[in-house]
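Recall that a protein's primary structure is simply its ordered list of amino acids. Everything else, from secondary elements to tertiary packing, is in principle encoded there. The following example makes that idea concrete.
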Amino acid sequence: MRRMRNAAVAAVAITSVLSLVACAKDSGTTPGGNAAGAECQKATPPTVQAGSTSSSTTGTKPDAKALKVGLTYDIGGRGDASFNDAAAAGIDRAIAELGVQKSNVKEASAAAGDTEDVKASRLRQLASEGFNPVVAVGFAYADALKVVAAQFPNTRFAIVDAGVDGAKNVTPLVFAEEQGSFLAGVIAAYKSKKCSVGFVGGVNVPLIQKFEAGFYAGAKAAAPNIKIEKKYLTPAGDVSGFNDPTKGKVASDGLIDGGADVLYHAAGASGKGVFNAAKARGALAIGVDSDQYKQTTVAESKDIIISSVLKRVDVAVYDYIAAAAKNDLSTLPKSFDLSVDGVGYATSGGKVDDIKSTVDAYKAAIVSGQIKVSDKPSS
């Protein structure tokens, strides 16, 4: 694994001067970060009045009783304790609050090794059976959806984490993952006792690099001398990295061996392995997508899950279904970011209560535009 450069994060613009407090211990620092056991040098949090956030769906809730909703999950499906479960929560909320009938909902899941033809066939079957709208969960459906959307021009489709150029009947549901991950970086910097943290990415693709970029930027903004290392489980083209807890554990063990005592993952179901490693080795972990402290499938690790970056796929799926019921998709944001609660962080378990005001100060600075977070890694 390679260490991230410790250059200043040019993408993070903080108008107030970040004065340093809590100097490093007398052992000093190394060019790659801090010396073993050194305290993190904490920057003064930005000062900005917190702005209000809002959901993109406002006003009277529409009646979605007549809708037939198709939903096709990414690898792992319901029960992954992460990305897919967040999407599932969106459809469950639509059933509870919008009147969508369970009998009018059909769900399907991808499997490792699915070809484009298989993914297209899954989408085509939902559309041909009259499900409208159809939601594809995950960027891996983009190519297949481009084909199928053209074949069913009167069916409304949405895709999470991607767009389909030229397809007017496809709505992209995309997120500012880098903004939520910035807050994870701040949390990690404040909770690390060794001033050393790690990132585990499922697959080395631009989407997951957004999580990496934000995490790095947030940790560096909060503690300029912090050591940050990363590990991707699989290269682009091999999506098994999102569903391999064993690889997640091996990668996490390596990061912990290198000194990291707080780990943040963006690895889907592989995150279960990250949590297992952290628990076994006395480290802490930050989850992703859903509030993983509350997830029953990782309940045995909840004591070391200090927070989760909330990528509100549930909000996006729910808002999309509500907009479809109103037959007005123009109400949806171009990106689900901090300003519309499209991303955020969880406080379940009370493990970040002591630093909540600090994290919220950084959040407010991002919402106000005082801090700009790049979605591209610095190295």
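Residues 69-175+314-331 form a domain with the Rossmann fold fold (CATH 3.40.50.2300). Residues 206-222 form the longest helix (17 residues).
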